[in-house]
Amino acid sequence: MKVGLIYFGGQYNHLILKNVKYLGVEINVVNPSIGIDQMKGYDCVIFSGGPQSVKEELHRMGNSPIFVKELSIPKLGICLGHQLIAYVLGGRVDRADNPEFGLVKITVDDNDTILRGFPKEFSAWESHNDEVKEPPPGFRVIAGSQTTRIQSMVSSDNTTFTVQFHPEVKHTENGIQVFKNFLDVCKK
Amino acid sequence: MFEPEKFIEEIEPQVKSIVGNNRVVAAVSGGVDSTTAAALMYRILGDRVIPVMLDTGFLREDEAESVRLMLRDIMPLKVVDMSQKFLSSLEGLKDAEEKRKKFRDLFYTAISEIIKTHESKFLVQGTIAADWIETQGGIKTQHNVLVQLGINTEQTWGFSLVEPLADLYKNEVRELARYLGLPKEISERQPFPGPGLLVRCVGALTREKLKITRKSNKVVESLLEPLKPSQYFAAVFESNFGIDQRLSEILGDEIHVYETKATGVKGDVRSYGKMASFSLRNDYKEIREVSRKITSGDFTRALMRVWKGEGNYTVAIRAVNTEDFMTADILELDTSVLTKIAERLAMIPGVGEVVYDVTTKPPATIEFE
Known about the structure:
- The complex is a heterodimer.
- Chain A is 22% helix and 34% strand.
- Chain A is of the alpha/beta class.
- Chain A has a 9-stranded mixed beta sheet with strand order 2-1-3-4-9-8-7-5-6, sandwiched between helices.
- Chain B is an alpha/beta fold.
- In chain B, helix 2 (32-45) crosses helix 8.
- Classes of the chains: A alpha/beta, B alpha/beta.
- Chain B: Catalyzes the synthesis of GMP from XMP.
- Chain B: It comes from Metallosphaera hakonensis JCM 8857 = DSM 7519.
- Chain B: This is GMP synthase (glutamine-hydrolyzing).
């Protein structure tokens, strides 16, 4: 099995790479400017964080909108990746009313799919100026925080998952579980 | 999990094929990364490795000598005193990035001379993942990141780089050091940035401020060391401030805004912004909430005022917990502990205020610049 990590220049991308590698799964960094035909051979894909704002700077994110729409493999979006998936599939993304940096308490509504194994409330670490205001059609919101309503979403066919927080950093409680849950879906 | 044995198996042939039969110079700052990198290379290449420490003038008190003694039985460290050159070239520079970039130029010009003297063409350094990630992301220019920025070291300075730890984080470097059998005082050593006290002397560099920074660091280190935070130090800047009316109203407190700026990271973007302080309180739930409200706007640092007296300089105490230095949480220090540290800092001539930095990473970085 091989995971593609779409790289947008975020601070924690290399940590995602190491987390997945240490779980014993092959993972390659993918430059989003490559063509979709070069994405063959990947069993699933992770869209990582980065400094861009999807509303104004989608043109700086290569072919990633095409990957989101056309790749029929399991997808996980983290931070900017979460916002990208929401925006491209018809949700609304804008400046956050309360940007979150550092410690945030996440409240879980449904601890299934990507949040399986998480308690009703846990501490996560965040760093974002934008937020998803409205989910795209067919997506279910499964977690939120006091300052950001949409912290995690799942598509109706249970193949696309997103989180606004950073599961790859050590300060997020049991964050590695997000990757375990995602890789379980990829294996199927 | 990280496996030191496997790591060495992978890195040894790589290093040997790069270096061949040549001599290599290893730059040692005395921190855990560069010391472990040098020791690993010494293990692989023996006395073809020449470990060198540059005294840049920004080391802590007696540091050069204590590092040389600490390494006595592992490798023979050469200490080269460049402090006057560095100090006179950097004096008066104010902008954090300008200071870091000038330091980088001075550092590599000096080290390339040493490499030539030893008829070598290679430099070993302890660059780790957090260094190149922050530099590439434009958060701050780590002085030891060159190739990842597209700088051709061979053309510019006449040497090639060997960076055996570039894929590792701090906690993994420590595991490697333990595996190599390095003494505890190295594997568990407190991290110390390459540009040293230069980046803790926040804003314009002056000899007076540097002197206060050195003394303050000694006090803070000696009092916090028993608590074993991942990183702890003091940063010093001019106390000049104004009052932010809007924030003061919102928070029901007097919010001071300093003229000096500090470095932060918000949403993967560098943020070189102002610092604000609020009055002393006890409850960390409340302290975290105030810190959050201050930094969700334009500010990169929230500081809690511990003590105020006469004198031109503010000393900020920093103490954080982190394994990999990519994110960091603050230590919830009691006001009694903070007051005790402040009493000692207040005895340093020139110190007029002591604050406690209560900003996590993000939105702040661990160091101030």
